[in-house]
Amino acid sequence: MNSSLLFNITTIAYFAAMVVFIVYLTGSSKVVGLVATLICWVGFVANTAAIGMRWYEAYAMGYEQAPLSNLYESVVFFAWAILMIYLLFDLKYQQRAIGAFVLPFAFGGMIWAQWSLDATIQPLVPALQSNWLTYHVFTCFIGYAAFAMACGVSIMYLIKAGKEEKSAEQSPAGGLLGLFPSVKVLDDLNYKAIMVGFPMLTLGIITGAAWANYAWGTYWSWDPKETWSLIVWFIYAAFLHARFTRGWVGKRAAWLSIFGFAATIFCYLGVNLVLSGLHSYGGS
Amino acid sequence: MSKAQSFTDRLWDFFCSLKLAIVTLILLALTSVIGTVIEQNLAPQEYMQKYGMSQSTYKTLDALQFFDMYHSYWFLSLMGLFAVNLICCSIKRLPRIIKTVRNPVLVADDGLFRTFSNKEEIVTKGSVESVRDKLVARLGKKFASPVVTEQDGKVYLFAQKGAFSRFGVYVTHSSILIIFLGAMIGNVWGFKAYVNIVEGKAVNQVWARGGQQPIPLDFAVRCDNFEVTFYEGGRPKEFSSDLVVLENGREVLKKTIEVNDPLSYKGLTFYQSSYGPAGDPVYQFRVRNRATGETADVMGQQGRHLPLPGGAALIPMGYAESYQNFGPAAQVSLDSGDHKHGTPFIVFQNYPQFDEKRGGEFAVTLLGVQQSYYTGLQVAKDPGVWVVWLGCLLMVLGSCSAFFLSHRRIWVSIQPLEKGIGVKLGGAAHRNQPGFTLYFDELTKDFDDALSS
Ligand code: HEM
């Protein structure tokens, strides 16, 4: 058993879960939803084991480093974080239809990592050899994962709200959309996910600043990655304030959440692939 | 007069408004993008080459301070506006919150009950006093000890929990101001500098980044040794410098620093940042006179004529860490006494017999090359950094309390009715309404049970 086999199992499980969730949307059998969720758990366990195994493999090669050291490792960790957030929300709210809109993010990450990213274990350059790396990446990615969840829920919201407007005169949306949670629940989940993501991103930015201060003596240097994380933070802060005090709920909140996640993805990948800077880890 | 009054009022409202906060947040987000797309603080020629800018485009963007935008007047003004907005908004709202917490409404009349989204009415038997005692006990056990008010034969209970969570938002907001303050302290009383120290040497001044003048230190720092290690594949594994702090020539502190493990002394921190060769390498050779069999060891710097017995001299000319996989090698030439360079040739450290094959008067072996290094250190002094960390801590604590704790209040009124005793329950929470509704329903059920027992 090695990590790459486990990562393959993870990828297949996320794909299967995604497909079964979509089947669940077309039918109405509770069992199908349960099966999909179980597959998610299998994938999550495999993902966890794979990351643990990779940690051990690096250790065996003589590198004392957490498996968060290059783009490949960060993407598979991102998939792990998405599943963790999703499964926590599932335990609490049991809204199975959401899986069909969140799993694609995790599966997309896994398949991209498996197909086109360099999976060799490389030792860390001196600048990255710090426990702060682990705290920093961990907190940021839990935040990103919560924003992914919020984005998936927001897409569902827009689909459902759009359909309900069209068929307002007829009976309320049934069939495919009947399995969607109500718009009220979707709106609330969007907010709840961001409420988890925002403090995590805050912690991510703070741990990043603490680390930079420890390694270079400057906690903030406006490098593109830092700046983009701040941009994302501003966007979600605007989201929260607009919601609390100006009553931005429903469609506008959903759009803002999707926009925020687009900025998050740019912060995560765009900055490395398009712009340059200190965090060029995983860049070409 | 009244016109001026209304103008200041309007100005105040403008600075207090949340609309301004949202607009400022979005403007900060949008403008911040500029500096991530245009690389900051390059030389003018670099901008023109890298981005293909014409002279006039460069001048326009430079006038807009786009090349150092995070320190530009307009960006700092936006930040300032953000801070003023926060301060005004808090000044406006805080007194109201303090009042809500310190002088809660103890007596809930029917009008207030109508505003609650969580309420319940129970009719029970017994006397007002017995019901009161039962509910005071229940409420104290399940929620929080209530304040009891008796008025016109009716009894009112009020209990609250988590009132302090109302202040979470203010803690979060002030934390932002504290972080700004820390950054300002660092900018005014701190500096960023660098210094290079050659192995074995000490320095007592550092150079400010971007400045010309050295900054004197009231102590000295010596570098005893610099070392770089590599992984097998050739990637650098660690850079380290053995540093010693000297006060009046006395050693007071010793530390081996690495990247991610700096040395701090008297508010200054020294970070491992770069390294490089210092001066010419020093060579050591063993030279054997093939005719006499006599050997001599010579040593000296690159380019020097190192005298050999008999009037000739050896001239080291260059050095390679690894020459064609044969390990360390030096290029040398011989001066046979006429002060001219002979044909250069290569000698190896690991293959001493190699030069025997060349023929000629001397056979030369490389014994070793010593290259000394300098270590490049970043030096930072930032007295504001602890203020920044305090701000960060408050921000985390404040947002946790703002998001996850809620101020919950329960009101009860007990009054005699024709058929028994009427009990009205009402509750409110300033966050997480659905969660509170569940809690409230559980609480009323518990009261129901307590009253009917
Ligand atoms: C990026 C900076 C900011 C952060 C991180 C931040 C954070 C927060 C948080 C965590 C809350 C609590 C949300 C809740 O009510 O549950 C909040 C509420 C609020 N914020 Fe901010 N805030 C920021 C900037 C501002 C600014 C500039 C203003 C200016 C007026 C402002 C005004 C408010 C108001 C009025 C509330 C609602 C308070 C209440 O519910 O009583 N915030 N903010």
Structure keywords:
heterodimer, A: 284 residues, mainly alpha, 75% helix, flat, disordered C terminus, B: 453 residues, alpha+beta, TATA-Binding Protein, Tick-borne Encephalitis virus Glycoprotein, domain 1, 4 domains, nine-stranded antiparallel β-sheet, 10 helices, elongated, binds protoporphyrin IX containing FE
Please give a structural write-up.
The complex is a heterodimer of chains A (284) and B (453). Chain A is mostly helical and 284 residues long. Helix content of chain A is 75%, strand content 0%. Chain A has 8 helices and no strands. Chain A has helices at residues 3-26, 30-60, 71-93, 99-116, 131-166, 183-216, 224-246, 250-273. In chain A, helix 5 runs antiparallel to helix 8. The longest helix of chain A has 36 residues, at 131-166. Chain A is flat and about 60 Å long. Chain B has 453 residues and is an alpha+beta fold. Chain B has 4 domains: 2-95, no CATH class; 104-162 and 406-452, Kinase associated domain 1, KA1 (TATA-Binding Protein), CATH 3.30.310; 173-279 and 374-382, Tick-borne Encephalitis virus Glycoprotein, domain 1 (Sandwich), CATH 2.60.98; 282-371, no CATH class. Chain B has helices at 2-16, 18-37, 44-50, 55-63, 73-102, 110-115, 128-142, 168-189, 385-404, 433-452, and strands spanning 118-124, 147-151, 154-161, 191-198, 202-208, 214-230, 236-247, 250-258, 263-265, 268-289, 295-301, 306-307, 313-320, 329-335, 345-348, 362-381, 408-416, 421-429. In chain B, the strands form 3 sheets. In chain B, strands 4, 5, 6, 7, 8, 9, 10, 11 and 16 form a 9-stranded antiparallel beta sheet that branches. Chain B has a 5-stranded antiparallel beta sheet with strand order 1-18-17-3-2, covered by helices on one side. In chain B, strand 9 (263-265) and strand 10 (268-289) form a beta hairpin. In chain B, helix 2 runs antiparallel to helix 5 (73-102). The longest helix of chain B is centred in the N-terminal third of the chain and has 30 residues, at 73-102. Chain B is elongated. The model of chain B has no long low-confidence stretch (mean pLDDT 88). Classes of the chains: A mainly alpha (284), B alpha+beta (453). Chain A binds chain B through residues 122-123, 125-127, 129-130, 132, 188, 195, 198-199, 202-203, 206, 209-210, 213-220, 222, 224, 227-228, 230-231, 234-235, 237-238, 241-242, 245-246, 263, 271, 275-276, and chain B through 18-19, 21-22, 25-26, 28-29, 32-33, 35-37, 39-40, 70, 183, 192, 231, 233, 235-239, 258-260, 262, 269, 271-273, 378-380, 382, 385, 388-389, 392, 395-396, 399-400, 403, 434. The structure holds protoporphyrin IX containing FE. Protoporphyrin IX containing FE (HEM) sits between chains B (18, 21, 82, 85-86, 89, 169, 172-173, 176, 399, 402-403) and A (237, 240-241, 244-245).
